[in-house]
Amino acid sequence: GLGYKEEVTIPTFSICHVYETTPIVYHYDLYRMTNLDDIFSTGLFDSCDENSVLFIEWARNTEELGEEVKTLFFSYGEKNNERIIEAEDGIF
Question: Which residue in 3, 39, 55, 65 is a FRET match for 29, CA 20 to 30 A apart?
Fold first, then answer.
C-alpha cells in the first residue's frame, strides 16, 4: 500500500520500522511494553502528526493516544492468502 514495494516485516525487536511513503508510515510493535512510560521511550508520540500514519501492534497500553485511534483486527479468510480486516465500526 501507499506505493511501498518492499517486504514489510514485524518490528518485534527493533520496536519500530519506518516506511518512506506519502504519508510516512510508522509500524510499531509494543508487545514488550508494559506501561505508558515504556511507550514514551519508543518515540511513538514523536511520530504522531498530520503527515504520518501509525500502525501499532499490541496496542493494549495506548488508550491515552486520543480520539484519532482506530482499532483494526486481522484474521485469516477461508481462501489461501485471504485476510479479513475488521474495524471497530465494521469490515473494510
Answer: 3
Vertex 39 angle, CA 37 and 4, to 5°: 165
Q: Does pLDDT of 92 surpass 50? A: no
Domain count, the chain: 1
- In-domain check, residue 7: no
pLDDT digits (tens, 9 = 90+) for 33-60: 888 888 889 998 888 888 898 888 887 7
| Structural domain of 75 | 16-91
Write the CB contacts of 52 (distance below 8 Å, at least 6 apart in sequence).
Answer: 23, 24, 25, 26
